[in-house]
């Protein structure tokens, strides 16, 4: 067992979040640019202290995770779960591992990835994506065209690879926000 | 429309990779928008433009992204050394390089120095956005290298 889990993980901010009832028009407008399901989350209400960056960054997150076409949504969730494991963000890992399971119905595959990592991942496409994700997360300066070869061999096209790069980059950002601005609240037994 | 990422890569908008990027126009627009909101905001609040540039430069240097660091260095004069600047740079170092090692004490330390919630969130967004730019640049360089082969 690892510390990563599909169970819901909470998040407690280290700064008091903005209150939706007393938010300024600028803060409310910035929250509107964020994914609808998360607009009133504690996390986004904490980010709303700086509405300018929240609006642009929320819109960027939205397009990276949900843009139509290109990389399959489940593959984006897989990649962001892998980034979050590498960075040690238990909260983000649980959220995106869960979304992968919702999209694919493949809970055993995700549970194995959470428990054992991806060194022995049996699905070659997922293995190639996870390895690339780890390399770009850990040592971006060392990534070369050679790192793209396994993705090409697994059949990824240009737009899919661009979407994968965007997902990895987005969670270099998301994990750092989540890990610094709050603490994860772990479920019992994890 | 200016695009910092393409300026740094020397990538033409009508090159094959430039055209590929324009299949995700909102990703370009909002990455540029986030950069401008964080480094060049019309109202920087309590976190000065010089402090913002210094924090971004520190993260880019630590991530080994020299061209991006040089760009940030050119945005504003270096801020005057102070305990506040030291604390901000220490926070940038932890947040960028070892985010799991941060604790509530780091945030409380910034509050004690007089930073507002807005300043702290802005600093954190800024410090966390440079790693986005670094990985986007690295991924795009790999694609450029592949296309040139």
Automatic annotation (TrEMBL), chain A:
Alphabetized UniProt keyword annotations: Oxidoreductase, Peroxidase
Q: Does Oxidoreductase count among this protein's keywords?
A: yes
- Outline the extent of the Carboxymuconolactone decarboxylase-like domain: 62-102
Q: Name one GO molecular function term.
A: peroxidase activity
Instruction: Classify the source by domain of life.
Output: Bacteria
Output the Pfam families linked to this UniProt entry. Answer: CMD (PF02627)
What name does this protein carry? Peroxidase-related enzyme
TrEMBL record, chain B:
Q: What is this protein called?
A: CMD domain-containing protein
Q: Species name for this entry?
A: Falsiroseomonas tokyonensis
């Amino acid at each position: 067992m690892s510390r990563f889990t599909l169970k819901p993980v909470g998040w407690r901010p280290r700064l008091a979040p903005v209150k939706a009832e007393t938010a300024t028009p600028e803060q409310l407008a910035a929250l509107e640019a964020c994914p609808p399901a998360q607009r009133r989350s504690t996390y986004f209400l904490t980010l709303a202290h700086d509405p300018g960056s929240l609006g642009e960054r929320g819109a960027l997150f939205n397009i990276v995770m949900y843009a139509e076409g290109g990389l399959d949504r489940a593959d984006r969730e897989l990649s962001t779960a892998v980034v979050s494991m590498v960075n040690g963000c238990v909260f983000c890992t649980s959220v995106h591992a869960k979304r992968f399971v919702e999209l694919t119905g493949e809970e055993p595959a995700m549970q194995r990835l959470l428990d054992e990592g991806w060194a022995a991942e049996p699905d070659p496409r997922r293995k190639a994506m996870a390895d690339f994700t780890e390399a770009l997360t850990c040592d971006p300066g060392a990534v070369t065209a050679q790192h793209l070869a396994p993705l090409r061999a697994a059949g990824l096209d240009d737009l899919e690879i661009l979407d994968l790069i965007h997902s990895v980059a987005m969670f270099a950002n998301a994990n750092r926000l989540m890990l610094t601005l709050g603490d994860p609240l772990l479920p019992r037994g994890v | 429309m200016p695009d910092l990422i393409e300026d740094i890569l020397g990538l033409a908008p009508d090159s094959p990779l430039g055209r590929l990027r324009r299949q995700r126009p909102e990703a370009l627009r909002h990455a540029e928008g986030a950069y401008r909101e964080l480094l060049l905001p019309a109202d920087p609040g309590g976190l000065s433009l010089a402090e913002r540039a210094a924090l971004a430069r520190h993260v880019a240097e630590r991530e080994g992204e020299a061209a991006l660091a040089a760009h940030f260095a050119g945005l504003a004069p270096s801020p005057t050394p102070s305990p506040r600047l030291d604390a901000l740079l220490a926070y940038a170092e932890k947040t960028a390089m070892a985010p799991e090692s941060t604790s509530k004490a780091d945030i409380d330390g910034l509050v004690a120095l007089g930073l507002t919630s807005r300043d702290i969130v802005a600093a954190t967004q800024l410090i966390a956005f440079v790693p986005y730019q670094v990985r986007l640049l690295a991924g795009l360089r790999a694609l450029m290298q592949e296309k040139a082969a």
